[in-house]
Write a structure and sequence with these properties.
Elements lengths: L1 E4 L4 H4 L7 E10 L2 H12 L12 E3 L27 H6 L4 E4 L5 H10 L2 E4 L5 H5 L2 E8 L8 E15 L10
Parallel strand pairs: 1-2, 2-3, 3-4, 4-5
Antiparallel strand pairs: 2-7, 5-7, 6-7
């Protein structure tokens, strides 16, 4: 198992292979459907984005509300294919990686290969366990979206598996 950190620079991304288990430490950002739609609109309108996209990692998650102790009760992945329509444009802006669950479209696989990005899988149904790997969180954009706001998360040893590597090789065999 390899330990990696953010920012997820190209030399690290291109060294990862499909099926490889990794532990990620550093900053990641949550974004689901509505946030992706807004990010793409901002890109089209040439507006400043709420975080630097280059070499960043987006986690397809909508965490539960923060508890009194300041942490989430659960922060598990959502189905990644729901972001497939938005992913090629966001990858073109330099995104280094995505975390979610499930298959991706051929267009996304091709875009991952073209942009030398990586798609990670994490534990579906393991949101409470994953939340324990989050050491800090704050909303950085779209607070009106509630759990679908964009959060900046600091994670330590976040468990992942490479689902699609930078060459477009897919764990699902597509």
């Amino acid at each position: 198992m390899r330990k990696i950190t953010t920012p997820l620079i190209k030399s690290v991304r291109t060294g990862l292979k499909t099926g490889e288990e990794v532990r990620l430490t550093g900053t990641i950002y949550t974004a689901r459907d509505q946030a992706h739609q807004r990010l793409c609109r901002m890109i089209a309108e040439k507006k400043s984005l709420p975080f630097k996209m280059k070499d960043s990692v987006i986690y397809y998650a909508g965490p539960t509300p923060v508890r009194q102790d300041g942490f989430f009760g659960s922060c598990g992945p959502t189905t990644s294919s729901r972001m497939d329509n938005f992913t090629p444009l966001i990858l073109k802006k330099g995104l280094g990686g995505m975390i979610g669950k499930g298959r991706r479209s051929e267009e996304v696989r091709n875009s991952i290969r073209k942009n030398k990005a990586v798609y990670f899988l994490t534990i579906g149904g393991g949101g409470a366990y994953l939340a324990k790997r989050i050491t800090f969180s704050e909303i950085i954009a779209f607070p009106e979206l509630g759990p679908e706001a964009i959060y900046r998360l600091e994670v330590k040893d976040f468990p992942l598996m490479v689902g699609i590597d930078s060459n477009g090789k897919d764990i699902y065999g597509d």
